[in-house]
Amino acid sequence: MSVIKVAILGFGTVGEGVYRTIQSHSDELSAVLGKKVEVAAILIKNKDRKRNIHDEVFVTTNFEEILQLPQLDVVVEAIVDKEPAFTYLKNVIQRGCHVITANKEMFAHHGKELLELAEKNSVSVGFEATVAGGIPVIQTLRQLLKINRVQQIEGILNGTSNFILTEMREKKQSFEESLLQAQENGYAEANPTNDVEGFDAFYKTMILSQIAFGVEPEWDEVEREGITSITSELMETAGKIGLKFKHIASLINEGNQVKASVKPVLVGSEHPFYHVEGVENAVAVHSDLVGRITLQGPGAGMFPTASAVIEDLVYVCQSSSSKKLTVKTSSVLPNQHKKIKYWLVQGLIPHNCPPFISLEEEIGEGIFVVKASKDDLNHLEKQQTAIRYFSIEGEFQSKIVSKESVTVN
For this chain's UniProt record, which GO biological process terms are given (predicted)? Predict the structure, then answer.
């Protein structure tokens, strides 16, 4: 039986998971591909550190030595930061090897260039693991895009933020206490900025935009907000009316332009993300024919991420060249900034509220449910600079108000 030779760049959580999965699932891989998959080399940082790697695997700290191997079919990149990952993968593609990456920051910045380079060199790029760990959202989009026109994508794309919000709500803890718990559990880094300020979810959102719509929004025009402003008081108040805070990334084709946001919103029990807790991720894809498809599963961890990489390994080995996605024009949805909907607003001064803001119910001290458009609230924010507002998403909106609207004298 012929052999597919694989090199793994990096041997942290993801790299080790890929190596161990290739060992444990070798029979399955051989059955699907008709060839044996063999890890030929691994790039590491510290050669003195003991690792559980078979003696026949070439282990090196020098990338050039991997590039010069006599046979090299697929390279799995599992390191962090944009560089040297981007440079490594360019060199690998130019040599004529398929590549697979789990590096969302690098791919968000340079994915388009890598895909174009792969096309020129008749190889494929796998990047399923860059978005939602073990959830096969990219493969799903590839299938949907054959016929369906994707209109909107929503996702809980960062397990760390979702875990913190779950801990705050269920254990009635502060943000700081829940962040510490996430760090102690190994879900958050010592510097958690990428997760809690929404950068990680932002990079994943840009990758999804490129796949689904063929373009990305201007990065500096994307509304990106983390979860650090969510307080225990807001959590408790929202819970009184059956709402939960979720950190949701959204992509929508609005007026022939793709709009994106990554921010905390409120969802009710009928929303598909209402029961997505802990480190779980979820993605909902809305398209014109099939309607809504929701995928949910572990967004991080050694084997969920390795699963995505291994599925990509099969994909690239079965592809004769890097397949371009045929992007169809999606149905244009109404301007969401002008859509009238429900919001939770904190710090509102009701007697100074303009008539275009409909006060529906006061649910806490200075915390109101209002009915307005995004443009209306942007205008109100200029008048009442202390307010903070959060969108209430889903069909639950129609069930929020059981009392008469608030009357302001």
Answer: methionine biosynthetic process; threonine biosynthetic process
Query: Is 382 marked as binding a ligand?
Result: no
Q: Taking 60 as the threshold, does the pLDDT of residue 2 lie above it?
A: yes
Which residues are part of the catalytic machinery? 204
Residue 332 gets which letter from DSSP?
A: P
Tell whether 8 and 66 lie within a shared domain: yes
Residue 330's pLDDT is 54
Residue 46 pLDDT class (50, 70, 90 cuts): confident
Task: Let me know whether 155 and 291 are in one domain.
Answer: yes
CATH number at residue 155: 3.30.360.10
Structure tokens belonging to residue 172? 């009635």
Q: What is the pLDDT of residues 314-346, one digit of tens each?
A: 989 987 544 444 445 455 555 666 788 899 999
Residue span of the structural domain in which 54 resides: 3-126
Q: How is 267-323 classified by DSSP, letter by letter?
A: E-TTSTTTT--TTEEEEEEEETTTEEEEEEEE-SSHHHHHHHHHHHHHHHHH-SS-P
Contacts of residue 29, Cβ cutoff 8 Å, sequence gap at least 6: 22, 36, 37, 310, 313, 314
State the CATH number of the domain containing residue 104: 3.40.50.720
Does the pLDDT value for residue 305 go beyond 50? yes
Q: Consult the annotation and say whether 323 binds a ligand.
A: no
